[in-house]
Amino acid sequence: MTELSISTAAGVFDATAAGPPDGRPVLLLHGFPQTRLVWKRQLAALAASGCRVVAPDQRGYSPGARPARPEDYRVGALVEDVVAITQELGWASFDLVGHDWGGAVAWWTADAHPGRVRTLTVVSTPHPGALATALRTDEDQRERSRYMIDWRETPVTEERMLAADAAELRASYAGQVPPESADAYVRHLSRPGALTAALNWYRAGRPDGAIGVVDVPTLYVWSTRDSAFGPTAARETGQWVSGPYRFETLDGVSHWVPEEAPESLNSLLLGHLRANGEPGTTAKSPTVDSRKR
User: Fold this and answer.
1) Which superfamily is assigned to 2-274 in CATH?
2) pLDDT single digits (tens) 37-75
3) Whole-number Å distance between alpha carbons of 160 and 33
4) What is the mean pLDDT of residues 164-187?
């Protein structure tokens, strides 16, 4: 694995890369409260299959791309980061994988740039339209999402999460994240400004516009013990995909799928790539993107 610094107009993103430089491009997007380290097992598996895989620390998590204002973390800006990073890498098209907040960004990117996203894999996070429907109709999902309202408080949330050796932050991993990874996340988010930047994803306000139906080949992986996303939104997600769609459920697994069930996720991910071209093949030239915003 190689450490990269990817320079864009928005700043410099720290990243880890693995696999042959001419392999099939795959971008991995982490969520909260984690970093690119969450993809360690997926980086290894994808590289072994011949893919060129890159996992960046996203906006706010990379010190060189950490604007101060909450509005600088709106969804449109996060999607622009994905486009800028992949352009800097020289990728005309790529396979996109996201977990948690990274999954939300992946959904929005696939909607806005279907000609560049070869396949989409989202772990845990339902399609934003499906989540919006569940929040209107399902009391269970409203209860699960109540934390997002609480986390918009500042600086109370940061102080509470980092108190007593970040006891609240550590508790969020529910014992399903390897201790050494949890320690690394806490160290990263305990640095000045880092946790506030990560929480700004929740404080940025509503998206600039509505998201549509995704028409790229999509794999959605949901786990039955996910505390953030319930079955209503998970099942509704298929209504928001018009392209080839596969919905997989991991029984007895919590929200932290990439680290708790890496072998299962890797098998599903590699199978999804094979179903849409061999994993190690170089990406094709981009198609015309008639819906690009």
Assistant:
1) Alpha/Beta hydrolase fold, catalytic domain (3.40.50.1820)
2) 999 999 999 999 999 999 999 999 999 999 999 999 999
3) 14
4) 96
Q: What is the pLDDT of residue 286?
A: 33
Structure tokens at 196: 């506030």
79 and 104 Cβ atoms separated by less than 8 Å: no
For residue 179 the two structure tokens come to 């201790």
CB count within 10 Å of CB 52 equals: 23
Q: Which one, of 144, 154, 139, 190, lies nearest residue 169 by Cα?
A: 190
Token readout for 250 is 């991991």
CB atoms inside a 10 Å sphere around CB 233: 28
Q: Compute the distance between CA of residue 41 and CA of residue 39 in angstroms, rounded to an integer.
A: 6
Q: What is the spatial order of strands in the sheet that 218-225 belongs to?
A: 2-8, 11-18, 51-56, 24-29, 94-99, 117-123, 218-225, 245-254
C-alpha span between 158 and 121 (Å, rounded)? 31
**How confident is the model at residue 208, as a pLDDT?**
81
